[in-house]
Amino acid sequence: MADLWSEIADKGMLQTWQDRAMWNNMRMNDRDIADVTGRTYSYLMNGITADKGWLGLFKQGEKVRLRFINGSAMSFFDVRIPGLKMTVIAADGQAVKPVTVDEFRIATAETYDVIVEPQDQTAYSIFAQSIDRSAYTCGTLSTDASFFATPPAMDPPPILSHRDMGMDMGGGMAMPNGETMDHSQHGMATISDTKVTPASNPLGMAGEGSNQAIVHAASEAGFQVDMQAETPSNGVDDPGIGLRHHQHRYGRRVLSYVDLRNLFPTKDQRQPSREIQLHLTGNMHRYMWSINGIPASDASAIQLQYGERVRFTLVNDTMMTHPIHLHGMWSELETGDANYLPRKHTVIVQPGSKISYLVTADAKGAWAYHCHLLYHMPGMFRTVLVN
User: 3: which DSSP letter?
Assistant: First the structure.
């Protein structure tokens, strides 16, 4: 923290003490990207460590299909193959219209199928660095079992910005990580200036599944919530922290959800009958995770009627990235083309952002709905009942 603010001050970017107080008040750390890092984990590819390296052989000129499955418990990986384009053809096992990229982020439980066409009689590094750049795993695509590729250097570690705090501003001065802040637009207040809702409803939330508008409490309204995303950014076109400027900086095109289109037409063309808005909430200091400020142990089930079409809108009121997983039914991401909604079972919700998808309640029963990060799951969990 001290290093960041010294850097900002040295560059003449620290305009008020409120900027520094804002981080302290919310008990956040601008580099708290991953809960468990490479200092604890040994990242593997098909069960093999990076120093040994998984090996896949190919014949020069042939097309190779690679299926990436994030089988980790707590890790996001950014995947690329230097020197090779990857054509994404499936997401979470569902066919999508081919889109060619240089890199993609994959969350716990997500899967991507890609086609690569290596032309040279050489070796390529399949490189997967963790979201916080604390470590990586890698393998090799090669024409020769004795020829292994050298992995590239990791990218610089990302730093959380105003955007990741739910303050999506259209302009302003640069932060050290390339993000921007504009003091004229957000009018930040200290904790003493915020208005706290009554104790009988500490977060001012409407009931889950209710058609009522959600009235969000002021930041720090309760010990279980660190912040609110006052102006959440669009999570569909955001590749994620640490990836947002790669096209400009490195010439690498990074996959965003907005790039995904179903290969086949959307089956259920009905408009949703209602919207269920859920806020992903938590306290970084006490490590308490919840939905709408309510942990799973105190929450009622989300009720769906069999056959209904519902829109789920997720707002991430935390500064951590959450992969949200709905069992039993597909989450059809609203990526801009209603006729070809991509179907996923796990959806990344970026810090300080919101994302929406449509669900057809076509499977009766009780279904788990949760963050797929193991240590977040106990609190950031709901039961979805389809009757």
Answer: H
Mapped onto helix, strand or coil, the DSSP state of residue 301 is coil
Which residues are CB-neighbours of 366 under 8 A, at least 6 positions away?
A: 301, 383, 384, 385, 386
**Contacts for 34 with CB less than 8 Å, ≥ 6 apart:** 74, 75, 76, 130, 131, 132, 134
User: What pLDDT digit, counting tens, does each position of 85-134 carry?
Assistant: 999 999 999 999 999 999 999 999 999 999 999 988 889 999 999 999 99
Q: What is the pLDDT of residue 217?
A: 43
Rounded to whole angstroms, how far apart are CA atoms 329 and 312? 12
Q: Name the token pair of 231.
A: 């102006």
Q: How do residues 329-347 score in pLDDT, each as one tens digit?
A: 999 999 999 999 999 999 9
**3-state SS, residue 325:** strand
pLDDT, tens digit, for every residue of 179-223? 333 333 333 322 222 232 333 333 333 344 443 333 334 444 455
CATH 2.60.40.420 domain residues, the chain = 44-142, 158-239+259-387
Token pair listed for 73: 């418990």
Dist CA 124 CA 85 (whole Å) = 11
CA atoms within 13 A on the CB side of 262: 20
3-state SS, residue 2: helix
pLDDT recorded at residue 85: 97
Rounded (5°) CA angle 168-250-324: 45
The two tokens of residue 176 are: 């050290």
**Which superfamily is assigned to 158-239+259-387 in CATH?**
Cupredoxins -  blue copper proteins (2.60.40.420)
Tokens of 284: 């970084």
Checking if the pLDDT of 294 tops 70, the result is yes
Q: CB-based burial of residue 119 (10 Å sphere; 0-12 exposed, 13-18 middle, 19+ buried)? A: exposed
